[in-house]
Structures are given as C-alpha cells and as structure tokens.
Amino acid sequence: MDGPYPDGSYPGRGPRRPAPRGGTGPYPGMDPGMGGDPRAARGPGGRYPGDGPGFDQGGFGEDAWPGDDGYDDGPRGRKGRGRTAKAGKSGKRESRRQQADEYAWDDFDSQDGNPVPMEPAPKGKKGRKGKAAKRKRGPVRRLAPWIALVVLLAIVGVPGYYLYNKYYPADYSGPGTAPQVTVEVPQGGSAFGLASTLANDGVVKSSRAFVLAAEHSTSQAGLIPGTYKLNRHMQASLAYAALLNPKNRDQLTFTIKEGQRVAQVLQALSTQMHRPLSQFTSIVNSPSQLGLPSYAKSNVTGVSPKVIGYKVEGFLYPSTYDIQPHDTPLQVLQSMVKQYTQVTQASNLQAGAQARGLTPYAVLIEASMVQAEAGTKAQMPKIAEVIKNRFAHQMPLGFDSVLQYGQNSFALNIRDGQSSIPGPYNDFQHATLPPTPISNPGMDAINAVLHPASGPWLYFLAQPDGSSIFCVHQPANASAKSCPAGG
Q1: Which tens digit of pLDDT belongs to each residue from 283-295?
Q2: pTM of the predicted structure, to 2 decimals
Q3: Residue partners of 126: CB distance under 8 A and separation at least 6
Q4: Which of 160, 238, 253, 290 has an alpha carbon 20 to 30 Å from 145's alpha carbon atom?
C-alpha cells in the first residue's frame, strides 16, 4: 500500500478492519490502498450497506450493512447502541471509546489518504489553545484608583482643614441681630470654657473664633461674672468685648446701706426682685439655712411680732450685690450673710472682741447702736465710749434708736409715753444691751466699738446738721445746742 502508513495503521485508528464478506478491498467502491472514509458510503438512516446486528469495530458479521441496527455514527453511549449494548456505567464507558475511535478518522484527509492535523479550537473566551482571552477586571481592581484618591485626601485634606480652621475659623460679621440670648458668665469663667456655650446658643458662629478673639484682645480686663444679654450671630470679637463691659450685664445691682434694718432690706428686695415679701420673711423667721454664725441668737422672748427679721439682724452685711435673674430669695440672703462672715473673719472680730472683754455678738449689738445713732464716721468712736461709760456707771443706755426698734418704729425721737412701754428693747428701763442688734452695721461701726475713743462722756445730743455734742452732764433738753456748765 502506498503512502506514509502502508499497513493502514495510523495514530488513533487502531488495527485495520477486515474487508466485508462478498466484496473486494476494504470497502466496496473504495480505494483498495486506504479504503477511504467508511462514512462516505452511508446509506439512508446513516447506515452502511449490509449493516446488521453482527457488525462491530472488529469486523462485519452476517448481512452486514443493510438494515444494521447495531451501528450508529451518532453519539455513543445510548442504550441499545454500541458493541455490547449494555446499560449502566460500562455501556457509557464503551460508548466514549467508540466516540474516540470515530473522531480519530477526522485526523486524515479522506481524499488522498494523507494525515492532516486537526483544526485548532476557535479562539475566544473559552478556547483552551492559542492566546488566552483577556480577563475582566474585578470590582476591587476597578475601585482601586478611587480608594487611593480617598486615602490621599484623608492624609492631606484632614490636617489641612484642621490647620485652616484653627487660624481662620468660621465667624459672623457685625453686631448681630435680635432676639437676644441670655448668657451667664460664672465666677472664674474663661473664654475657652464659655466658647462652646456661645456657639451652641448661636451667639458666635464657632467656638474657635471666640477663643481667637479673646487671645487677640488688647483689653487688660477679664471676663466679669454675671448675666448678659447678647445678640445672635455676632462677630466673635464684638461678643467678647460685650462681655468685658459691666454695663452690659443683665442683673440687679442691690445695695444694703449701713444702718438699715432687716425689715427695710427685705422690703427693698421684694420690690426690686418682683417677689412676694412673704418669700423673704419666711426665711428670716426660720434662718437655719442662712449659715449664721454660731453666736447668733435663735430665740428672744417678748419681742413684738411687728419686729421682722430680728433673728438675722446685724448679719446682712452692708454692701452692693449683683443679683442674677435666676437667683432665689434664699440665695440672695445667703450671699449677704456669707459676706458678713468673710469680712468679720478678715478683720479678726473674735480676737478684737476678746481684747475688749466682749463677745462677738455683744460687739455686733453695740456696733448696730453706734451705726444707728452716728451722723458721721468721726462720731462713732465717741458714741462707743458713751456706751462703755454708761455701763461703767450702771446707767440705762437710753438710746432712742433701741426703743424705736423694739416698737417697730423708724422715728428719730421718741414720743411722750413711749419709754414707759415695757419690752426687751426698752433700754430706758434696762441697764443692759438689747437682746439683738438693731440694724446692720458696717466695719466702721464695728471698729469703733473695738477701739472706742477715750473721754468721760455720758451723753450726746444730735444736731440738725448731723453732728453731735458730747457731754459729761445731762443737757437740759434734747434740743439743747450745748452742754451744761462743766461739760
């Protein structure tokens, strides 16, 4: 046989099939050298002439080709097909082997018998040969540039924004607009501590702008405690300047004058704070919450019910107080008692009283009498000396101011018959101090008692111009202009 494979065997085909019975050559009508492609001689239905039940890959049996039901060029492995025609896995394996034999025929050109290579699989996404198809980019690879950009902005942008906001914070312009906001500056408050409150209340646009305004302020003054009314949307520097001006405080400035009684103080507080008087009187009648000194008297018998606040008399220290809008009557009175305690402790009242042979409370009582009687500061030490001399002579004090206090009167001079009215404050009948102070004295009166003038005076007469005449002997009457002979 001519050709590269004389014996008819080539890779993938296996042994040459024997010629069918009743013919010459490998197949009827085929080239005796190679036999050609047996499929070229298929008859109707895809069968070969003489196909029969006896045909298999090893040879042809009786009545091969015509009507053969045992051979099919279609897919192998179906039941009833193939050499063994067995069901199950063994049949499937045999079918795959038969299919491989069939495909082996395609390795050669059926016209000239020369072997030709199989066509490569078409290139594409699923091709196994040739250059692999370009893979699609996954979602992470597609997002990678954006992720890198975000990271870069975080590294550069966040610190940059922080630095810009630090030196150029958001701020309003101008003095702001209504409605106003109530702002409270606490004792010891700072611009840093107040900045966030102002920003949250809408007074300034940012807390950092207010802090910078305070740092750049040329004023030597600090924040003044109190309550302020500020506009909304103010420029930070203007808001800070407003808090430095005490005139902008929204508060009540209340002053207790030296020598005023508790009853007078309470009435003024009720009027100016717009609170019922009963809210104040109930406190002074049960003053346990006021923080009075331990030497204050809690009960005095025989006091007229008309006398208001005698239990705290002398302890509301004369001074000026800033009362905030939200302060309660109790808080206001507590601040006045606290001021008394601080001032008297600073002046060492207890030691001074001990040097005089008096109790602190006795000093306070005498000081209240001096304060009520003196017209000027210069008179105070002499009046204190009159009290001292009268006690030394065991004389009743006979101060009009004491008698008037016990009868809840504010007159300067007593009337006829008043001195005969009994009571704990009738110092015309008692050669003792009154049971409580009769006013709220200042430190000038307290110091006058601690350091009285030296002289033999037992009497003094007040003059229309506010001065007083001090005498050893009793003047003829209260309107006398001079002392009797001998002083």
Answers
A1: 999 999 999 999 9
A2: 0.60
A3: 133
A4: 160
